[in-house]
Specification:
alpha/beta, five-stranded parallel sheet, five-stranded mixed sheet, 14 strands, about 40% helix
């Protein structure tokens, strides 16, 4: 399959040249492109030695008993007939979850053979890591990989010039309408195709939505087939029901009874935990938002869920018979304002873009805010910048229609917020007559430009 430029590429290059590097563990859901990225990275070495523990089962025995990493490297070199030399070879241990002893041995490559470049990856790796007493904390470096971001989708479609023009725009200098309109059309495509590499490559080559959907449905079924491999004894039918139930509540506070009445709440919560561990869903937890850190006042019982990919989400809904042609038409030709305001798909993608464009060195927690009672209000996402909370609302409303945002900013004594929509870049101020004429500042960031919030020195985030 043709390789498409990925965000992780630059992180791998930094790791290669770091004199203090540790063995690298690349983590993420199945089929997001981990192995492809490492193989592409391996082209920068004189030798690339790939071990797949599902295919090369005999190599597992090399990690039994006393660990001598120099001897292990020599055995691997002779077994696969590829030289393993320090500074010259990238040793790739794929599907490493099949050999827990190899995971445990990674730390010894740091201690005893730090000159050798060693990288590992695997499917359902998180379940194996949970069962190990320790796997080298402080001696192994982890990077997390996700499906393609919108920017990566644009690169796959060879739209480097479009990216360059977008990156020059900001809230004071909006995009020319021609570029803005073209980015909206690509964003519509991204909602349909999603970011799973196989589906994206199929789209670039064929421009055939049906072929992309077939790939997406195959990936969904592969995920469901994996449920039997989850280490905890959880009913595969429960996991399937829970995953599909989440897809029907995107953009809403999760209601367990809507997922199933055949299982206990505790069982569904455990299924949700396992799906999150596998990288299939990402929780967005309610918090009071009174200060930093946000999780200090988080309520884990109030949660919304992001599904890992918009294309896979639509595939699940179609498999369930819930995706109508009318919905597809709304995505492709509907009014941009309606696309943002109706349904939770755009809100979900905004959350995914926020997660995926942060540094990929850890899993990030996501938060939202809600107020119940006589005056119901909700803010889609809360982020922290310069130790200040930044509320982000995914809407396309007029200034007067942003009551939740004004209420939150007034209650928390905040002066800056972000409205994310399919409008062009912009900004406006609001004089809050209910709070001693306090001036509050809103920046409008298009959904197609969320990645620019996380660029060093970004002009899109508030500096106060």
């Amino acid at each position: 399959m043709e390789y498409v430029k990925r965000k992780i590429d630059s992180e791998l290059a930094k790791w290669k040249n770091d004199p203090m590097r540790k063995p690298l563990l690349l983590r993420g859901a199945r089929q997001v492109g981990k192995s492809s990225a490492i193989r592409q990275f391996g082209k920068g070495f004189k030798y690339f030695a790939e071990v797949n523990f599902e295919r090369h089962k005999a190599i597992k025995s090399f990690f039994q008993g006393d660990i001598d990493v120099h001897l292990i490297a020599k055995k691997i070199a002779n077994y696969i007939n590829v030289p393993v030399e320090e500074g010259q070879t990238l040793l790739f241990l794929d599907e490493i979850q099949e050999c827990p002893e190899a995971i445990m041995a990674l730390r010894f490559f740091k201690e005893d053979y730090p000159e050798l470049h060693v990288v590992a990856a695997g499917s359902l790796l998180e379940f194996t890591l949970q069962e190990l007493p320790t796997f080298g904390v402080g001696r192994i470096h982890s990077l997390f990989m996700y499906p393609m971001t919108f920017d990566e989708f644009l690169y796959a479609n060879h739209e480097e010039g479009l990216i360059a023009m977008r990156n020059e725009a900001n809230c004071q200098h909006p995009l020319d309408s021609a570029f803005h309109d073209k980015l909206i059309e690509y964003f519509r495509l991204y909602l349909m195709v999603g970011g799973m590499p196989e589906a994206v490559v199929a789209w670039v080559k064929t421009r055939d939505f049906k072929r992309c959907r077939n790939i997406q449905e195959d990936i969904v079924l592969t995920y469901e087939d994996d449920f039997g491999k989850y280490k905890k004894r959880v009913n595969a039918s429960l996991l399937r029901t829970t995953m599909r139930g989440v897809c029907h509540q995107i953009g809403e506070k999760l209601t367990l009874k809507q997922i199933s009445t055949d299982f206990q709440s505790s069982q569904i919560r455990e299924a949700l935990r396992l799906l999150a561990l596998a990288g299939i869903i990402i929780p967005v937890v309610s918090t009071s938002g009174n200060g930093v850190p946000l999780d200090a006042e988080a309520n884990e019982k109030k949660v919304k869920m992001l599904f890992l990919d918009p294309g896979l989400l639509l595939a699940v809904l179609q498999l369930e018979g819930r995706l109508s042609q009318q919905f597809i038409q709304q995505i492709m030709v509907g009014n941009p304002q309606d696309l943002v305001n109706k349904g939770g798909l755009a809100e979900m993608v905004a959350g995914l873009e926020i997660v995926r464009n942060k540094p990929c060195v850890q899993r990030y927690k996501m938060f939202y805010w809600e107020k119940t009672g006589n005056s119901v209000a909700e803010i889609d996402y809360l982020e922290v910048e310069n130790l200040k909370i930044v509320p982000i609302e995914v809407k396309s409303n007029t200034q007067g229609g942003m009551k939740s945002l004004w209420m939150f900013m007034r209650d928390k004594h905040l002066f800056n917020a972000i409205r994310c929509s399919l409008e062009n870049f912009g900004e406006f101020e609001y004089v809050d007559k209910n709070d001693e004429d306090t001036v509050r500042h809103i920046r409008v960031i298009p959904l197609y430009a969320l990645s620019q919030m996380f660029v060093e020195g970004s002009q899109l985030l508030p500096k106060k």
